[in-house]
Amino acid sequence: MCEVAMEEQGSEITDMEPCASLGELMVVTPRRRLDPPLSVVWTTLLYCAELVTAGVLCRTLHDDKDVIWLGATIAFMLVPAVVIQFTLTFIHRDLGRDRPMVLLLHLLQLGPVIRCFEALVVYFKAGKREEPYVTISRKISLEKGQEVHKELEIGQTERTLATHRNAFKRTAVIQAFLGSTPQLTLQLYATIQEKYLLSVRLALMIITLISITYGALVCSVLAIQIVYDNYKVRLRPGAYLCMVVWRALEIATRVTTLVLFSTALTHWVFLVGVANLLFFFFLPWVEFWARKGSLAEGVEKNFSKLGTTVVLCMFTLLYACINVFCWSAVKLDLAHPELIDRTQSWGRLAMYYSGRFVENFVLITLWYFFKSDFYEYVCAPLLVVQLLICYSLAVLFMLLFHQFCHPCRRLFQYNVHDCLHCVCCRRRRAGRGARNGRGNVPPSYSTAATMVLVPEEPLELLDPQNSLPPHVTRQLGARESSA
């Protein structure tokens, strides 16, 4: 086993990756030019824009004496901001360090601003002095259908920037689904109820929609990076474009459906929202209790069992909030040290989108029959059809992404084509098998596209730490036994 362990300021940073066996292609990549922390700057801009726009809207509502809308807007503005401050402080471990100015800015809800400034200072100072140490990270890169093992030299500056990027990814998700999503729903509902649109409210809704779409995009990318942790993942511009269209249509349709339903059956929308939230909140816990597992111990070393439970409950609440409005792209496993199940579950994905489509259809149909007189100048049947078509287009772009744009689609055991072929042709293949004694199963599209290097060494040398995905290991074992 190859292990590279470096120590800095009393904290251990360890990368453990399996060594390449003899005969494998190993590429040693020197330290490369650092990428600018654009995601950190973009997340900070979204945070500040939403906070400032919400503050201006609160001033307008205060002048108009709209107490109800004012209180709800302030709540959806401050609650996610406070959670973000705690998250950044927790990730950077500032409570045990002497940094009073940073903590003061966090109390003033300006934590993302100072963190963004720190990331930019680290980036612009990079290369001006020699790094104190270099650590090695080993990744697998898919190049022309082949797995190429690469060694990447990572310096202290790159490590620091990676910490900032990871922290702001969590910040973007929290801001999107604990703040922007309820804020967008509230402002759209207020616009319909008041029958006029303020310019500052329109600006706030546009910013929140952008924030939610970006948060959902971050969820998808994080899910890919977590599931395929041993691989170097790079998404092409076409993949990002496909994900943006998929997520924007999915979220916009979901929010519009809930708001329209709430205008017709105001009290029932609370039941729908709470039922969705409780279902997705308790689903990981029920699966955890059914397996009789133990709580993950890798959350934080200094936490007691009560502290670990509280952190897991907050994490599960965020997971539930995401799934109320869009697909979270991951499955929680509270017994796993990383809290994420790394298997690709097509069945769970199909169940979610099928159930969500049926729920949206029922809600929009109830709105159609119980709508108020405000919509008498709106073509209600056309609006219903448009919402259903938009959600169908979101599902279509999701399928296109997994079939053609996913960076690790060559590693799928089954792809979208296989799942659709199985569902549509199951009866025909069963009938053909009954007549011929044995059905001739056509070759799999995704299997035909999968290319795996097969060296001459035994299987134990190829994967000493079981780091390869299970289906790749099975393929290598089957080929070795047949040889």
From TrEMBL:
> Cellular component per GO?
plasma membrane
| TM segment ranges | 40-62, 68-91, 103-124, 202-228, 267-286, 306-330, 350-370, 377-401
Topology relative to the lipid bilayer, per the entry, is: Multi-pass membrane protein
Q: Where in the cell is it found?
A: Membrane
Region of interest (Disordered), residue spans: 463-483
A Pfam family per the record: XK-related
Q: Which UniProt keywords apply?
A: Membrane, Transmembrane, Transmembrane helix
**What InterPro entries does this protein map onto?**
XK-rel (IPR018629), XK-related_adapter (IPR051773)
Per the record, the similarity remark reads:
Belongs to the XK family.
Protein name, per record: XK-related protein
